[in-house]
Amino acid sequence: MSLILSLDTSTQNCSVALHDKGQLISQELVSEEGSHSKALTLLIEKVMKTAGFALADLSAVAVSNGPGSYTGLRIGLATAKGICFALDKPLICLPTLQVLAAAIQAPAEKLLLPLLDARRMEVYAAVYTADLHEVSSQEAHILNSGSFQEFKPLLAFGNGSAKWKETCAHTAITFVEEPLCPEAQYMGKLAYEAFLNEKFENLVTKEPDYLKEYMGTKPTLKSL
């Protein structure tokens, strides 16, 4: 048995799933932006209880590690690190766009273009084969009518695809209308493959893959 707990907090969804050798056993999801810090541990408890396992039974913990919400990514990675450190379990980090691509079943000839909204006409994007091998790595990309012309035929999806559809001049692209988001349920096979290949992360040094520099706000000092 190879039990892997998967966490995704990269978008407004907060999701947890448990897989055995890549096969889904149990999953939970809430969709409420800003609630991840409260919801994540509760979802983990519910998933493990539903499946009838304890955290000590895990073989590894996997987390969707970016790009996405800065706060969400930090919460997900910190929680995964905490479990791994406490129980001496290996940590697996997966690219969020590859997790999103795993939600699609496409013909072998199609290239997958998962797009996550990054505000205005900017998206986080990557290109994968139908069997999820990377063709173009994750990057922050400002969309224009000629974006991704070098890749064809393309299947575009995710919450960043809708704003490009009307201006896109790509002649070999299909847009998926269904609103797809990365979720923990899609992480099973990717995490199991990483587990078998021992692609584990350093619990001390691993950071979220933001792709863009975090721009925090400084508190304003009020005069007395």
From TrEMBL:
SUPFAM superfamilies: Actin-like ATPase domain. InterPro entries: ATPase_NBD, Gcp-like_dom, T6A_TsaB. Pfam families: TsaD. Its EC number is 2.3.1.234. The keyword Membrane does not apply. Keywords: Acyltransferase, Transferase. One of its GO terms (molecular function) is tRNA N(6)-L-threonylcarbamoyladenine synthase activity. Coiled coil: none annotated. Residues 35-212 form the Gcp-like domain. It is an enzyme of class 2 (transferase). NCBIfam families: T6A_YeaZ. This is tRNA (Adenosine(37)-N6)-threonylcarbamoyltransferase complex dimerization subunit type 1 TsaB. It comes from Aquirufa novilacunae. The lineage of its organism: Bacteria, Pseudomonadati, Bacteroidota, Cytophagia, Cytophagales. The gene is tsaB.
